[in-house]
Amino acid sequence: MEILGVQEFSDTAKGIEALDAMVKAAPVEIVDVRTITPARLVIFITGDVASVEASLVAGRLAGATGVVDELCIANLHAQVMPAMTGDPQEGEWDALGIVESSSITAGIEAADRAAKRAEVRLVELRIDSHLGGRSALKIVGRLEDVEASMAAAVSAVEARGRLVRSVVIPRPHPDIRPFYRATPDKETR
User: Fold this and answer.
1) 94 and 68, same structural domain?
2) pLDDT of res. 53
3) Is residue 146 domain-resident?
4) Across the chain, where does the E strand assignment appear?
5) CB of 42 within 8 A of CB of 33?
6) Which of 68, 79, 130, 166 has the smallest number of CB atoms closer than 10 Å to its CB?
7) pLDDT tens profile 13-66
8) What does pTM read for this prediction?
9) CA 70 → CA 56, 97, 145, 161, distances in Å?
């Protein structure tokens, strides 16, 4: 994926109207459209840089006051999409870091920054209706790497004014391992 564009809308109707404007404005590919809460809609697009940027502008104009947040990331880290779809790879579990933000977009930026900062695993980037429009990023790895990644992630979320909470748990107890993801593996239960 050359570039990922994300727009988050406070209501479904404005989001769909903006989606139509986005795909009419430039040749982009719709990666996903998700209803996050009964009223919030998130649109994911990709394409070349100029097309994604033009589509985001069109979406912003069509969505007007319904735009909650938006993001345009070039060279999205390879771990971000698997973390969003619930297919992360396992890794060292010396520490667990969690960043909760008040928007999906802020969570995606935090995940990208965290993965690019240090050798960690993005265990999960939860962006579903059960969080009411929030996102929760979970990172595992060696303590010093998790701390470095968390600093980058928290900085990105704070810059957007979207930080809800962050925590680093050194040496988490083994009994919580099956529950660090929203949907634990059946084998671990």
Assistant:
1) no
2) 95
3) yes
4) 3-9, 29-35, 41-46, 67-74, 95-101, 121-126, 135-141, 163-170
5) yes
6) 130
7) 999 999 999 999 999 999 999 888 777 899 999 999 999 999 999 999 999 889
8) 0.83
9) 8, 24, 28, 13
